[in-house]
Amino acid sequence: MMETNEYESGLNMLEELTTNAQQIQDQLMGEILSRNAGTEYLRRFLHGQADKQLFKKNVPIVSYEDIKPYIDRIANGEASSDVLSAETFIGTGTSGGQPKLIPVTAESANRMTMFNALRWSLVLKHVGDIDEAGKRMELMFAKPEVETPCGLKASAVSTRVFKGSSFRAILPKLYTSPFETIFCPDTKQSMYCQLLFGLMQRDEVFMIGSIFASTILRSIKFFENNWQELCSNIRTGQLSDWITDSGCRNAAASIMKPNSDLADLIENICQCKSWDGIIRKLWPKTKYIGAICTGAMMQYTAELEFYCGGLPLVSGFYGCSEGANGINLEPLCKPSDVSYTFLPNAVYYEFIPIEEESVEMKSNDKDTEPVDLVNVKPGRCYELLVTSSIGLYRYKVGDVLMVTGFHNNTPQFQFVGRQNVSLGVDVERTSESDILKAVTEAKILLDQLGLILTEYTSYGDTSSTPGHYVIFWELKAKEGNNGKELDPKVMEACCSRIEDSLHFTYRMYRKENIIAALEIRIVKQGTFEALMDYFVSRGASLSQYKTPICIKPKEALKILDSRVIAKFFSHKAPTI
Ligand code: AMP
């Protein structure tokens, strides 16, 4: 736990960083260039000079595919100091749904730890009276390392943090999950054991969390299916036989003992008719839920709020495998109001102005020159570029952000969506944030059916002409639903509401029959879990997993299509 002076120095550090953003960014750029100007990549553009103006003039803006050949060379055994960056080795990232190799440095995991400490200072400032002896029940899943062709081991950024010595030192005192359960390669065994340990220490838990909100909801669903067995294990002090992982079994053996009082108590809570506020009942000292609830995670907040019984949902940070970027200075604000204040000391940021309303979220032709961190304008949207010592130079992360204000001299951003995620069946393009907005409008209609939308994704079906948008929905009955069924009229109205909420070009194309009627396909419960299993089996990190808003791989589509239980179409063209 952080001492008071440590917590204050965290807050002071934040003030210092945000006040001196420009100087810190300039200094950082100087350091990156002087260390790496001799690499093959930068030599091509800077001819050995560590000059910021030349950097801006000559170094191209790139996407992952552009630098992949360089990353592959390092993965194949070439020294990174010759190719991309002085200190780089290889790690993995998953943004965009596809696993990929990315450069990392030993420093990047340490920076993440520093970042976490700053977040923690803010939580202490805002949440206040946290029990000194309390624990965090964070659901964490390490991902097995990937071996590159030359035998280098690459792991996800979350896994590198879990492995780090500073994290391991604080784990037993501050977290309910033992190390072995986080590193258990079987995610079901891992989740079962992490829930079990969390229940056994329920009186100490002051925070429940995961990186992304979807992981907490998955764990609640898993708990719904397994609470009887968990209680029986607590009653007998014995772990179920199907938990075969030796690490989990050893961890359990060291602390499990029969506890029928606790088992009775949990059983009573779970047998309640309503699971409204169940998290608060099971872990009564919990002060907040810590998980990213913004962007694509926003869809999970309604359901999470139901289980949390009024606990604040704290979206603490905005980051990615390529760098930790922003921190939420107002952790108690509503997910829809969250802005992230960028920290200028780890990554050099640039921002490409874009038109938010532009159909394709394309860069605005008139004004595409990237601007520096301190020069962004409130109310405008930008695509994020990062340059850092890991060997990424003017690299598009793929996220679109909107400036909401400044803290001292540092801008604050709301997450808008992923840039390269788009749905399209003709020449029109619909961005992630467009889909998100339209589905948010339509799902309000489900209230009258006593249903909640728990997960969704989309797909551009071009198997017939004209093509049409397909939105897959997984639904759940609200408490007190009393068996109300899917009413075709309401479902058709949902399809129309989505169409009405989409952008002008979509509506126009639809009216002119260049795009056919939008379809909602209802899938069985558990479908999105199967989808996640598929992506995890292909290398995605469970801790960092986010359901793709737009589905591309054929196999993923098969998983969804094989579980469809109803289909509905819009019956009228949208209004223009
Ligand atoms: P990964 O590199 O796999 O960990 O994924 C990083 C991506 O997750 C980012 O580029 C964003 O698209 C998304 N992400 C991370 N943090 C947030 C956040 N606070 N709000 C919304 N999306 C986020």
TrEMBL record:
<keyword id="KW-0436">Ligase</keyword>
<dbReference type="InterPro" id="IPR055378">
    <property type="entry name" value="GH3_C"/>
</dbReference>
<comment type="similarity">
    <text>Belongs to the IAA-amido conjugating enzyme family.</text>
</comment>
<feature type="domain" description="GH3 middle">
    <location>
        <begin position="340"/>
        <end position="418"/>
    </location>
</feature>
<dbReference type="Pfam" id="PF03321">
    <property type="entry name" value="GH3"/>
</dbReference>
<dbReference type="InterPro" id="IPR004993">
    <property type="entry name" value="GH3"/>
</dbReference>
<feature type="domain" description="GH3 C-terminal">
    <location>
        <begin position="434"/>
        <end position="554"/>
    </location>
</feature>
<dbReference type="Pfam" id="PF23571">
    <property type="entry name" value="GH3_M"/>
</dbReference>
<protein>
    <recommendedName>
        <fullName>Indole-3-acetic acid-amido synthetase GH3.17-like</fullName>
    </recommendedName>
</protein>
<dbReference type="InterPro" id="IPR055377">
    <property type="entry name" value="GH3_M"/>
</dbReference>
<dbReference type="Pfam" id="PF23572">
    <property type="entry name" value="GH3_C"/>
</dbReference>
